Amino acid sequence: xxxxxxxxxxxxxxxxxxxxxxxxYAESGSYTEQTFRxxxxxxxxxxxxxxxxxxMSNRTVAxxxxxxxxxxPVALAPVGFTGMQSADGEIKAARAxxxxxxxxxxxxxxxxxxxxVAAHTSAPFWxxxxxxxxxxxxxxxxxxxxxxxxxxxxLTLDLQILGQRHKDLKNGLSAPPKLTLxxxxxxxxxxxxxxxxxxxxxxxxxxxxxxxxxxxxxxxxSSWTAEQFDPQLDWGKVARIRxxxxxxxxxxxxxxxxxxxxxxxxxxxxxxVSNHGGRQLDGALSSIRMLPSIVRAVKGKTxxxxxxxxxxxxxxxxxxxxxxxGTMIGRSYIYGLGAMGEAGVxxxxxxxxxxxxxxxxxxxxxxxxxxxxxxxxxPKDFEGDWA
Length: 387
Ligand SMILES: Cc1cc2nc3c(=O)[nH]c(=O)nc-3n(C[C@H](O)[C@H](O)[C@H](O)COP(=O)(O)O)c2cc1C
Ligand SMILES: O=C(O)C(=O)c1ccccc1
Hints:
Blueprint: H1 7-17, H2 20-27, H3 34-45, E1 47-48, E2 63-65, E3 68-70, E4 74-76, H4 82-85, H5 89-100, E5 105-106, H6 114-119, E6 126-129, H7 135-147, E7 152-156, H8 166-171, H9 181-188, H10 191-198, H11 221-228, H12 235-245, E8 249-254, H13 257-265, E9 270-273, H14 287-298, E10 303-306, H15 313-321, E11 326-329, H16 331-362, E12 376-377
Parallel strand pairs: 4-11, 5-6, 6-7, 7-8, 8-9, 9-10, 10-11
Antiparallel strand pairs: 1-12, 2-3
Flavin mononucleotide binds next to helix 2 and helix 16.
GO cellular component, one term: plasma membrane
GO molecular function: FMN binding; L-lactate dehydrogenase (NAD+) activity
Cofactor: FMN
């Protein structure tokens, strides 16, 4: 068993143990990948203020997210195809999150269905909705999430049409994977993954296949998305979904001050400041750079979560100190899942928890709720002078 000390170790192991098409899918951003890269490099530009000779005993990084206690304010973000990174991946990730005491979010585009995940966990999870053209399907999946006891609906607003990720087209990404000769040869070098997949029946989109009529051919994600996702999604339709759901609502993919204000006025319990991990609008600014202006506009009116680019506890601390109430991680836990299944997701959470706790102590803080701009050194031009 290799020694894992950081998220990057999990990423290397993920690349080694999981078929190329699925690792590449996770590791891609859209088009030139500028936004994907800057999500990470912009975190590096923010520096931390060291404080010494401060009592650091009895520390806590525990908090709450949308009113529920959490071991740390870090939720697992919705990730499509999770069950292709490792057999039954959504169940593994949900179990790891439950044991750790953080929320798990199940994607509409998951391999394990809502019902499957609910049957294999006991903590309520969050359900992420993509709005399809088929309103009956949308109504039914909302009802299914309610029936499964999901504690929040995460409505994703930044992907009605897919940003192109070049590698997915070259690899012929699909679930189940297309058995071309290069794919078969590559899979033969990943024996543990193959054994897992042979041992499960869950190899395609469990929330959709068998539930939506006329789903068609799912092998090309971009044309499938264009056919199935509702391009007319607007605030009116968001209201219809809010009313049908009736529970806690989180609006995901907000990257603009006016949109954040709209979401807050709309009564969202939380927003996720996100550029979808750099997978959608290439050229958008990083989420962390957009955070301060959104905090100034809506702090206290709706809970502010942030994702895109978090690879460490230091990154979580920076987001909280800049005013986020909580964070979500996507790739950081997917690397763990692809590397070592459920144990790898647990490892990712342990790594981030330990880094967050240590970094908080070295900043001279004992309670995560006391973090603020006083802990940071932010370059004067960080937010940029954009017209
Ligand atoms: C492989 C992959 C699949 C994703 N699938 C979904 C999805 O199905 N629904 C969704 O709302 N967001 C999806 N996202 C976006 C994540 O929820 C999250 O916003 C993003 O991963 C955050 O960036 P990070 O990976 O740098 O942490 C996906 C991200 C990745 C990397
Ligand atoms: O890949 C993604 O980022 C994503 O959200 C998605 C969209 C459509 C189908 C599967 C995943």
